[in-house]
Every structure is written in structure tokens, then in C-alpha cells.
Design brief:
331 residues; Enolase-like, domain 1; 3-stranded antiparallel sheet; globular
Length: 331
Amino acid sequence: MTGAIRLHSVAVERFPVAGAFTISRGAKTFVDVVVCTVTDGVRTGRGEGTAIYYHGETAQGCADAIRAVATDPAAFDRHALRGLMPPGAARNALDCALWDIETRREGAPVWQLAGLPEPSPVRTAFTISLDEPDVMAAAAARAAARGFSLLKCKLTGEGDLARIEAVRQGAPDADLIVDANESWAGMDIAVQARALADRDVSLIEQPLPAEHDSALAGLSLAVPICADESCQSLADIEGLGAYQAINIKLDKGGGLTEALAMAKAARDHGQHVMVGCMLGTSLGIAPAFLLAGSASWVDLDGALLLARDRDEGLIVSDGMLQPGRLWGTGQ
């Protein structure tokens, strides 16, 4: 008999990275994800979150937070949940599990329940990890050979122009965006942007630490800039006037429910949307995929960077990401 939704289980699962994922803050060889399962006694719904490590989150901490909030029946209402838990990966896992069970109860896919267009294949960026220029060039060539035509290059400040020139040699026809992960403090951002524009880079993500956003005010840059670490949740968007785009990640914002509100607010403020992700499996990427159709940039390669993914995960072919059957289908 169908009853009230309640927590069924919470687990931490580890997935190895294919090689290493390296940014200005360090390298990862595996990712721990928290998987939340809810039930109404007949159906179940699942959601996955990846801890925001630069906030001090851990997968185990997220699991503990879900168990703690699950003692309150209001936690199983998506809208009430936003007032019970702060933004972050724990709320994301529970929010997405609630969407998943809702779609099974209603017999309709999540995209339909959320008033979104039916998902179709989209071009995703593929990340080129931070490394020496020749290594990044080789990685770019391999990605281009797999059909990826949009490459996201991780940068760190010193030596970045040489890295981009090497990537361009490795993948001469690819579109390039770059992500500094807050590493350009003390640099002349306008000069750096001009140099990257000359090398056909079309977007710069998070050049400065979030607390230095005021340094971007009034700058006229040759390449648009996108807020990532500066844009965690809906509450941040009002203060991001120096940015032309925001990167929405469900793990930062705390779920698909928050992400939908963020996308609307960004567009109301005249900003473009990038849909991004943390490292994670297709179970964590699938909810974000629903936002991809209306995004200016899609960066949903988190599962593609793993050594293995879940069964029935998202499919990639010639750089195009296609929906799978793992989450939110109503079946």
C-alpha cells in the first residue's frame, strides 16, 4: 500500500577516475558520492550528490545530514526541504530522490512535471585537466578524436597561455572555454582575457576568488566571464552583475528544484546559463541534463571522466550527450 514518503537508505559509494582529474586546487583519482533512496512503501526514488569539497563537505557528512533531516516529515516535500537544509550536495541527493519518486508516482517523466522541453542530445564540454602543455595537447587530441568539439581547459595562472596554445595545436578545430578555478588573483584580468580572445577562447570561468568579485566591477573584457564558485545558489545571483554567465551545479545549489529557480533568475537578470557538474556518475548528472536544452554552455562530463559508470547511464556519441534511463523517466 502506498504511504507517506520516507527515507529508505543512504550510502556512500566510491568510483575511480579515469587517470586523474587535476585543477588548480589539486588532483583527484576517485570520487565518493552519497546516494539517497526514498520510498512510499511501493515505489522508490534515488538521487546522488557529490560533496563540495572546497566548502568542507564530505560524502559521509552529507549522508549524516540526510539521516538527520529525515526525522522531520516535512523533509519529504521538495519545497519545504529548501527551508530545512542549506544548499549543498546532501540536499541535492534528497531533492533529486524526491523528484524521482514523484515521477514514478505520477507516471510521467520529470521533464514533463517540471514544465521543461523533452530532452534531446546536447553538445557537452569535455574537460582537459591542468598539466604541462604537451600533456594537455595530447589530451585535447584524444578528446577531439572521440568527437568532442567543445573543450574546457583547466588553468592555474602562470603558463596558461602556453597551455592554451598547446591545446589549440592538439585540437585545432575545437571550441575552447577555460576555467581558472579562482587562481588568477594578482593578475591583470583584462590583459589575460585579451590574450585568450586572440587564441579564440570564448568563455572564462571564475578567474578570481569569490571574495574578490569586486575587482571585476566595471571591467570591459574581451571574453565573457562565468561565475562558478561565486554562484552557489539562488541567493547569490542578485550580486553577480560583473558576470555575463553563471554556472549552475545541482550539488552547489542543493537540487533540481533550486537549479530551476536559479536558471529563471539568471535569465531575468540578462545572464547566460552554463549547466555544470561535479565528478559523479550518471545518476547525479541526469537531473542536470534536463536544464541543458536551454543552456548556452553544457559541461556535463562528470561521468565521462570516471573509469566506470552505472548501468543505463547517459550515452555520449561524437561529443553529444544523450539521455539515459537511469533516473526520472516515470518508469
